[in-house]
Amino acid sequence: MAEMFYENQADLERLKGKPIAIIGFGSQGHAHAMNLRDSGLDVRVGLYEGSKSWSKVEEAGLAACTVADAAREAQMIMMLVPDTSQSQIYREHIAPSMDAGKTLMFAHGFNIRYGQIVPPPGVDVSMVAPKAPGHRVREVFVQGGGVPALVAVERDATGGALQDALAYAKGMGHTRAGVLLTTFAEETETDLFGEQTVLCGGVSSLVKAGFETLVEAGYQPEVAYFECMHELKLIVDLLYQGGLNFMRYSVSDTAEYGDYVSGPKVINEQSRQAMRQILADIQNGAFAEQWIDENHQGRTKFIAMRQKDLDHQIEQVGRELRRMMPFVNPKEVTPGSGGA
């Protein structure tokens, strides 16, 4: 059984009086900084000079400073900038201040798992990884609740790394919902696998393949969009609430029967073999090496793939349909833009 921790197993007092640096003020950064601040902890936010987030930090009533100053002042340093930026930021601005007894923290284990950041001996290395986007982490905390999180310790130099990480998780509100003990390797490998085979890669490819199959067979693109993308949210909401069986309970018997007889034809042994290879590439570092190299080479292939999907017919059709459905709160991504 997985080991879980809750409110009575975490002591927030461990962090009282310990300066905490949140590096970055994006989706996760703002939630971490504000939740910890509201829990009575001493927080500052480290940013690069000239960052557009500087004023946002100050407007939120938080202290803003350079990454180097934040790292120098803090006892605990949480890295919440994009994976591909972390190693350079660490080397240039944080490493000089990583004295023995300090704690270096992460919300995702990529840079530790693949050796992009190697903290010095004497430094605790731990992780608190919320299982929700930052805005949701903040929203639920303000409502008096918390979202689940993962906790891991890569190095316990002080003898109190896990207890400090749990205290941090309590300050975030996670122990209200439950914090699951894992390792940096397990969190990183399962996270990458889930993103690539199911949550992002798998769903995107399945939706596009279904849409293309219907359009190629002569059906209207608008009808194909509704069947293969728009209605997906309805199914995901049912899965989120009650798992596969609740989803099947909630749909028609015809849909449930089709699930059983046709699903395995789409996701078959060939699909599973591809998943095994993807997992192997994650485990042996091949994917990480490929992604790191892509960033070193200027992201040309990545940008080309992003543009190709921005131009896909399902995106063009969907954009026009969503504009007619204000109740879905439609969002649009312009060419050349994208996430961090």
Your description of this structure?
The longest helix has 19 residues, at 232-250. The radius of gyration is 22 Å and the shape is globular. Helix 3 (67-73) crosses helix 4, helix 8 runs antiparallel to helix 13 and helix 10 (221-230) crosses helix 16 (313-323). It is an alpha/beta fold. The chain contains 16 helices and 9 strands. Strands 1-9-8-7-6-5-2-3-4 form a 9-stranded mixed beta sheet. It has helices at 27-38, 53-59, 67-73, 83-94, 110-113, 134-142, 161-172, 184-199, 201-216, 221-230, 232-250, 253-266, 269-283, 286-296, 300-310, 313-323; strands at 4-5, 20-23, 43-47, 63-66, 76-79, 103-106, 124-130, 149-155, 179-181. Helix 5 links the parallel strand 6 (103-106) and strand 7 (124-130).
Could you report the average pLDDT, rounded to the nearest whole number? 96
Uncertain ranges: none
Output the structural class: alpha/beta
The shape is globular
The number of helices is 16
Number of strands: 9
Strand line-up of the largest beta sheet? 1-9-8-7-6-5-2-3-4
What is the rounded Rg? 22 Å
**Distance between the first and last residues' Cα:** 36 Å
Report on the biggest sheet: 9 strands, mixed
Helix content: 40-55%
- Portion of residues in beta strands equals 5-15%
N to C succession of SSEs: EEHEHEHEHEHEHEHEHHHHHHHHH
